[in-house]
Amino acid sequence: MSIEKDRPDKSGLASEDNVVSPVSLTTPSKWVKDEGPGSALALFPGNFTARLGRVTSVAGIWADLQMGESGTAASAEADGSEASKKDLPPTVEIDAAGDIVLDVTFETSISTLNKTRKAELAASKKAGTQPPDRSTLKSKVRVAYRVNLAALKTHSKYFSNLLSNSQFREAKLISDIHEKLAQLKIAATEADIQDLPWIPITDDDDATKAAGRENAMEDILNIIHQRPTKTSRGTMSYVTTLAIVADRFDCVAAVARVLNTELKFKWPLTSNKPLRSEDGRPTETEQVL
């Protein structure tokens, strides 16, 4: 794995109100993992936007973190307000004793939402069931996952690099908060969720063209933590989404094992015979996945 020397890692960690300045980072995937010629990452933009803004409510931690930092103060519009029980998003305890929180915002385009609604409506008509509630599909969904840092680093090269390499702000954030919790004689595994390091990640649908990716993310994190998946039987479209998200976070091996064993997913048969066009003529495209 290689890390670009020009990766920024020093700005925006201090503010006037014990708040970490939100810093948008467009991070090419090559900063996190190498891309081979056959990598699925070549199929979609290798970047994501990480917002460093979630903080802990443990008294004094952020005041201490400000000391010695040279970052600039956050603006009045900054969204990195101190985490409290009032503004916490829906949380999923992948590990009740987890020592960090992945604060993930899933952004879905209108075109993807419309496509998903049409597919769900068609499926409900075919099955003779009530159509799903349209309000359940949203363009922006934020979910916080309480997870175990060691498990992430063991099964995901992406998280291993991002959360342990000192050149990344996320790694420093975790180290600083865990150190301050230790000084307060609070074990991170026993701390309230709002007192843990919150690592914001934004995930868009450029690669998957799928809504409901928060469910795939939950299953992937369960797999990483060697826990049962929430989904007991995956459709082809869901498994495809699962595979793309797993590829982004570089944990394909762990996910593939579960797909082939516990979920017993049956891949459709493929053929190297050419597809035929609407007029019945053979094309140059083979019938392979």
Automatic annotation (TrEMBL):
Domain of life: Eukaryota
Region ranges (Disordered): 1-31
Biased composition range(s): Basic and acidic residues: 1-10
Name recorded for this polypeptide: Uncharacterized protein
Species, as recorded: Fusarium sarcochroum
